[in-house]
Automatic annotation (TrEMBL):
Family: Belongs to the Gfa family.
Residue ranges of domain CENP-V/GFA in the record: 12-136
Assigned keywords, A-Z: Lyase, Metal-binding, Zinc
Pfam families, alphabetized: GFA
GO molecular function: carbon-sulfur lyase activity; metal ion binding
Protein name according to UniProt: Aldehyde-activating protein
PANTHER family the UniProt entry points to: CENP-V_GFA DOMAIN-CONTAINING PROTEIN-RELATED, GFA DOMAIN-CONTAINING PROTEIN
Zinc as UniProt keyword: yes
Species in which this protein is naturally found: Paramesorhizobium deserti
Database matches in InterPro entries: CENP-V/GFA (IPR006913), Mss4-like_sf (IPR011057)
Length: 147
C-alpha cells in the first residue's frame, strides 16, 4: 500500500457496469470502511459494502446524470444507473457527504477500507478473515469488538 496522503487534485474515474453513467471524484476520501448492515447487504446483494466517504461537492457525475435512479430523498439517497442498475454512490449525512461504492471505481483510490462496521448485524454465513478493526455499529459508537 502507498503511504501517499489523499490528494484533492488527483481525480478518480468511476462508472456503472455498462458505462452510460460516469463520474469523477477527488482522490481525497476522508474515511473508508466495509459496512455489514442489512441495508448495505441488500443494496449490493453481497456480504458487505466497501465504500469511501468524501464531501459531496468533490464528486461530479460527468455522463448520464439525467439517467440516474435515485432511491430516497434529496439529502439521503442511493444513486444507480437506471438501466444496468449499478450502485454508484449514496448521498448521506444530510446531503453533505457521498459514500462512493469502491466497486464502481475504475481507478485505484489512495485509501481503502480501514475497518468493518455494523459487524453486529453481519451475515452469519460470512467470516471476516482480515485483521482490520471490527465495530458493532458505527466507529463512534464504541471500541472495536475484536481487539
Ligand atoms: Zn451499511
Amino acid at each position: 500500500m502507498s503511504e501517499a496522503t489523499p490528494d484533492d487534485t488527483r481525480r478518480l474515474a468511476g462508472r456503472c457496469m455498462c458505462g452510460a453513467v460516469q463520474y469523477s471524484v477527488a482522490d481525497a476520501f476522508i474515511y473508508a470502511a466495509n459496512c455489514h448492515c442489512p441495508d448495505c447487504r441488500r443494496a449490493t446483494g453481497s456480504a458487505f459494502k466497501p465504500f469511501a466517504g468524501i464531501e459531496r461537492e468533490k464528486l461530479a457525475v460527468t455522463k448520464g446524470a439525467d439517467q440516474l435512479l435515485i432511491f430516497g430523498g434529496e439529502k439521503n439517497h442511493d444513486a444507480r444507473y437506471q438501466s444496468c442498475g449499478s450502485f454508484l454512490y449514496s448521498v448521506v449525512r444530510d446531503g453533505a457527504f457521498v459514500h462512493v461504492t469502491l466497486g464502481s471505481l475504475a481507478d485505484e483510490p489512495t485509501i481503502g477500507p480501514s475497518e468493518h462496521i455494523f459487524v453486529g448485524s453481519k451475515a452469519s454465513w460470512f467470516t471476516i478473515d482480515d485483521d482490520l478493526p471490527q465495530y458493532d455499529r458505527h466507529v463512534a459508537d464504541g471500541p472495536p469488538i475484536n481487539r
